[in-house]
């Protein structure tokens, strides 16, 4: 598989927030790439993690695992963890699997950044 | 080398039969005329500064040209027609500087159809010494080749052999790869069958129907279900979906299925069964990529009036649907229940419902509701409920038929495996199920 169906952009916001923007499909072929970027990300108490999924078009069970691995990575670094921009189909999936109890969701990247600034 | 008498070119003895057996191996390649051999014959002609050259394989009585330079339209020749076959039985390169001046070949027929006065050929020899054919050069004028030219001719023959070996090994690799793939697919199908009960048992006072719909023929999916008796005479069932595809998912499915059955014997409380599975999965995949599943696990208790009380626990699984005798569709939700095997301290949610005579309970995996409809949206629980309401099925078999019809309609929109298990209580059910036997 050489088709790149996932792009992960990492952006360090001036406030210290580390934003990972995920574009495309998060599945068994692309999840390792996402996990690689997560593991290189400098999450910490002053560097909260925001996973921006606004442009995520598909997420299978492997993608869900990768998001939980990212969450655990942030937890280990004592970094707040927020998921932004999850579409309604995936929101329903996340509710069914009970991840809505684990993750903090914000409708947009802006609201995710806003909520972290207020709490910080 | 010119002092050697030209040997008899006829096949002789067991040496020839071994040679032909070796030839068959390479002939299986069904060689097309090809650029590598074309380059070799062009090079041979240039080295000897002659107009004609060829690569030929020598059969029992025929010479078949694999590549020619300087002549066309001649695809094979009789083995007798020198010079092509002489290097097969001749030690070292076979050289005739002038056919007409050589007492061994002086009769005019030796000129052959190409009118060759001069020829030289080197054998294409396998590692175990079998001479399969030759690389030969011809001229219509007499010539005396140099030792360097003859060494080059032998090198070119060795190059042809290398090329043949390369293709044979590629062919073997390809054939082995095909065999491995066929075997893997056979194993995958066998494994898939082993993950599902061969037939649902007969449960007194209950009808059961199940189906497994695979989205991809070559990837083993990870859906599973089972219906089985507990030690105390009650019955239990489960249905679920493990993450991922392929052999690893199949291994996880197998582990999950047997863990749930074993857990139910140890403690038939549905929530305890899921918690036990969670612990087993975490232990199994410690330190590796985490692997999880979603599942519903239920226990059936006989209730008055031929009904069954169902205690259902769910972890990360979509709601089951009760299809009531009056046609209502009622979600039996275990919402809040979390993925099994992935999260620290996961929550599993338990609920109960009563299946009265005429009621059915549909359990499914998310491949169904996450299927894409022709309009591009997800079918969703809503779409499934609408279809069941419209068709108003009355038994496990009817509910299964309605859902299977829907799966068929969705076709390629169903991109994930889908498992279906339906339990129903016959409308006239009066039997009191107790201590029944599992029949398979």
How would you describe this protein?
- The complex is a heterodimer of chains A (120) and B (440).
- With 120 residues, chain A is α/β, with parallel strands linked by helices.
- Chain A has helices at 31-40, 61-76, 88-96, 109-119, and strands at residues 6-12, 18-26, 49-52, 56-59, 81-84, 104-106.
- Chain A is built from four helices and six strands.
- In chain A, strands 1, 2, 3, 4, 5 and 6 form a six-stranded mixed sheet that branches.
- In chain A, α1 runs parallel beside α2 (61-76).
- Chain A is globular.
- The mean pLDDT of chain A is 90.
- Chain B has a six-stranded antiparallel sheet. Chain B has a five-stranded antiparallel sheet with strand order 7-16-15-12-13. A five-stranded antiparallel sheet of chain B has the order 8-9-10-11-14.
- Chain B has eight helices and 16 strands.
- With 440 residues, chain B is an alpha+beta fold.
- Chain B starts with 12 loop residues before the first helix and ends in a 16-residue tail after the last strand.
- Chain A binds chain B through residues 28, 60-62, 64-65, 68-69, 89, 92-93, 95-99, 101-102, and chain B through 241-245, 289-292, 294, 315-318, 335-339, 342-343, 346-347, 366, 370, 378, 380, 416.
């Amino acid at each position: 598989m050489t088709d790149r169906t996932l792009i992960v952009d990492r952006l360090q916001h001036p406030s210290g927030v580390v934003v990972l923007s995920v574009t495309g499909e998060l599945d068994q072929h692309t999840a390792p790439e996402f996990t690689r970027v997560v593991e290189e990300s400098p999450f910490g108490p002053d560097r909260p993690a925001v996973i921006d999924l606004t442009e995520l078009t598909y997420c299978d069970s492997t993608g869900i695992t990768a998001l939980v691995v990212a969450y655990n990575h942030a937890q280990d670094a004592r970094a707040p963890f927020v998921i932004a921009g999850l579409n309604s189909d995936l929101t329903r999936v996340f509710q069914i699997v009970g991840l809505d109890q684990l993750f903090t969701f914000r409708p947009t990247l802006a609201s995710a950044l806003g909520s972290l600034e207020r709490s910080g | 080398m010119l002092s050697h008498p030209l040997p008899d070119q006829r096949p002789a003895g067991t040496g020839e039969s071994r040679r032909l057996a070796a030839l068959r191996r390479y002939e299986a390649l069904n060689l097309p005329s090809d650029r590598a051999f074309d380059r070799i014959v062009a090079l041979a002609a240039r080295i000897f500064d002659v107009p004609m050259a060829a690569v030929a394989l020598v059969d029992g009585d025929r010479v078949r040209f694999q590549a020619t330079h300087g002549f066309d339209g001649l695809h094979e020749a009789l083995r007798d027609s020198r010079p092509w076959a002489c290097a097969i039985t001749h030690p070292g390169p076979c050289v005739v500087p002038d056919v007409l001046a050589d007492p061994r070949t002086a009769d005019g027929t030796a000129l052959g159809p190409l009118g060759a006065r001069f020829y030289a050929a080197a054998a294409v020899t396998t590692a175990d010494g079998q001479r399969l054919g030759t690389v030969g050069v011809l001229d219509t004028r007499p010539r005396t080749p140099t030792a360097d030219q003859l060494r080059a001719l032998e090198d070119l023959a060795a190059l042809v052999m290398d090329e043949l070996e390369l293709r044979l090994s590629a062919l073997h690799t390809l054939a082995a790869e095909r065999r491995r793939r066929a075997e893997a697919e056979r194993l995958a199908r066998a494994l898939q069958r082993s993950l599902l009960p061969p037939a649902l048992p007969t449960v007194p006072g209950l009808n059961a129907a199940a189906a497994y719909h695979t989205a991809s023929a070559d990837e083993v999916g990870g859906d599973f279900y089972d219906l089985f008796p507990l030690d105390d005479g009650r019955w239990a069932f489960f249905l679920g979906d493990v993450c991922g595809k392929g052999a690893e998912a199949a291994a996880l499915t197998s582990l999950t299925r047997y863990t749930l059955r074993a857990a139910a014997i140890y403690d038939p409380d549905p929530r305890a069964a899921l918690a036990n599975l969670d612990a087993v999965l975490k232990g199994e995949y410690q330190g590796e990529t985490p692997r999880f599943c979603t599942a519903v696990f239920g226990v059936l208790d006989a209730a008055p009036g031929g009904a069954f009380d169902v205690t259902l626990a769910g972890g990360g699984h979509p709601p089951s649907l009760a299809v009531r005798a009056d046609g209502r569709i009622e979600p039996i939700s275990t919402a809040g229940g979390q993925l099994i095997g992935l999260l620290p301290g996961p929550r599993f949610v338990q609920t109960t419902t009563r299946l009265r005579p005429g009621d059915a309970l549909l359990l499914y995996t998310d491949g169904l509701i996450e299927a894409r409809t022709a309009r591009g949206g997800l079918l969703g629980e809503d779409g499934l409920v609408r279809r069941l309401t419209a068709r108003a099925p009355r038994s496990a078999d009817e509910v299964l038929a309605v859902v299977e019809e829907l799966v068929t309609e969705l076709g390629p929109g169903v991109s994930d495996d889908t498992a279906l298990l339906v339990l129903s209580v016959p409308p006239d059910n009066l039997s009191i199920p107790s201590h029944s036997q599992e029949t398979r």
